[in-house]
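Figure S7 source data.
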Amino acid sequence: MTRPLGITVSRHIMDSQRLHPEATGDLTGLLNELIVAAKTISAEVNMAGLADILGMSGKTNIQGEHVQKLDDFANNTIKRRMARCGYICAMTSEEEADIIPVVEGYEGKYTLAFDPLDGSSNIDVNVSIGTIFSIHRRLSPDGGPGDESDLLQPAGRQVAAGYIIYGSSTMLVFTTGEGVQGFTLDPSVGEFFLSHPDIRIPEKSKYLSVNEGNYRYWQEPVRRYIEYLKEEDRATGRPYSARYIGSMVADFHRNLIAGGVFLYPSDSKDPTKPYGKLRLLYEAAPMAFLVEQAGGRAITDDGLEISEIQPDGLHQRVPLVVGSRRDVDLYQEFIRGQR
Ligand code: P6P
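Tokens for the predicted 6-O-phosphono-alpha-D-fructofuranose complex:
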């Protein structure tokens, strides 16, 4: 039996580009370079359990977190490939304190923010982890190196965003503003094939995704919202089921496909992190673009649209409530005192 002709991600991107005669092909080129990096990381992640790559590299990143060897590998893979791709003028990574310049003479018209391996604390326990990326059009004049102002742009101005999840299979999920497409890697041929066209997140869900270990540290409306979702009321599909892996890409992906609301609220647990743990530029912003393109919603725990926040730092943290639109709308009623 001949294998059905799958649509590769490169073919999908080219088909999308053909719909935009004004396109120069630079975004296509950027995405294709990112995809090569993703395949390289996927191969390494899948070997992690076998090779002696597990364990700490003995370094800590800007967040003060132990950097595992796979974190280093993923960060360097993306940084080295993208610094010479010719499509970006500046980068920022969760693993690097400062802006990452591109190779002189290779400056392009986009910027890249990325979390090379989110959820890396789960590497050693074989839980799905992921790479997250966010792309903006530079604001500074074309030509020459970009600067922080090119990176510090609101999520609503993203040109593209997505993630690669290294799980039971490796998937690439991304948007360029025309819906959300999902591709699954066939490692036997090294190609991503379209497996989840036009992903839509269920408008209302039955899954709650939050670390309730922080319950005592949350604002009172957050606690009341969580308690509401756990009450029994069959008419409104309650109680919700709890699903929390502690790897945002994995939690987000499950919610995107099956529906759900994910929260990482601000908490009083760590005075140095009053706004929770997640970063805006390369975690909340790309997930906000994706979820909105799939029909969902993303706000802070004060009810501000993630897409409208003007970033004030490369590693700024924001509280996040993201997922099925009606679940996030309901949260906003609690935080506005309407419930
Ligand atoms: P907690 C992983 O380290 C991460 O940044 C996200 O991927 C994940 O959602 C979150 O932290 C989990 O944090 O405090 O619940 O363990």
